[in-house]
Amino acid sequence: MVVGVDVGGGSKGFHAVALKDGFYHGRFKSCDAAELAQWCAKTLRASMIAVDAPCRWSITGKSRPAERELQGRGIHCFFTPTREVAEAHPGSYFAWMFNGEALFKALEKDYSLCRALPKPGERCCFETFPHAITWHLRGGNADAKRKRSERLQLLEKYRIATEQLTNIDWMDAAICALAANIAASGKALEAFGEDRTGFIITPGMA
């Protein structure tokens, strides 16, 4: 059993999708990080959790190494600021990153954050990114402007039922769950970044 989580800010909260043996198992929505962590650890007893949110803040105020490495591959992504910069922002733009921080903290009791590539059987959580997952599994061909159709096609390719994935948040959660399932299955992975500011882990190139 693995879980993928799409993280939003404010009332949007968390959308989570569970896969069992690679097939759709269920979904869960909450604005409470602790409630979601409980669902993963106690209700499902999931082995790996893949989260679409930064697991660490920037140290320098510039983008994290993981984000620069993805950009170097032509994979566009959000840049994570320092926590101080995010706190000082007048709006709620970074609310989803604070929600991600809360989720990783809630998960840490049962799931250690990956500090290297995860191994089959390891009970852990890691940061991932749906666009990067799609890019790798489509052989380096992904367009964020067509993300809905491309991600649906990818899920169908991996025989993941999509009837319950009624919006892009559920789809992104399922894409993250697909990455967790690939990791749990011992298939090829890539890690971008370094330990201090966190790794972004994706499947290897298809």
**CATH hierarchy, class:** Alpha Beta
Reported for the largest beta sheet, the result is: 6 strands, mixed
Give the low-pLDDT segments.
none
Biggest sheet: strand arrangement = 3-2-1-4-6-5
Please name the CATH topology: Nucleotidyltransferase, domain 5
Termini distance?
23 Å
Number of domains: 1
The coarse overall form would be globular
Structural class: alpha/beta
Query: Could you tell me the strand content as a percent range?
Result: 15-25%
Rg, please?
A: 15 Å
Number of helices: 7
CATH architecture: 2-Layer Sandwich
Give the SSE order as H and E letters.
Answer: EEEHEHHHEEHHHEE
* Number of separate strands: 8
What is the averaged pLDDT score?
A: 97
What fraction, in percent, of the residue positions are helical?
25-40%
Question: Brief description of this entry?
Answer:
The chain is an alpha/beta fold.
Structural write-up:
The structure is a single chain. The protein has a single domain (2-203), classed as Nucleotidyltransferase, domain 5 (2-Layer Sandwich), CATH 3.30.420. It is globular, with a radius of gyration of 15 Å. It is α/β, with parallel strands linked by helices. 44% of the residues are buried. The chain contains seven helices and eight strands, in the order E-E-E-H-E-H-H-H-E-E-H-H-H-E-E. It has a six-stranded mixed sheet with strand order 3-2-1-4-6-5. Strands 7-8 form a two-stranded antiparallel ribbon. The mean pLDDT is 97. Helix 1 runs parallel beside helix 4 (95-107), helix 5 crosses helix 6 (147-157) and helix 6 crosses helix 7.
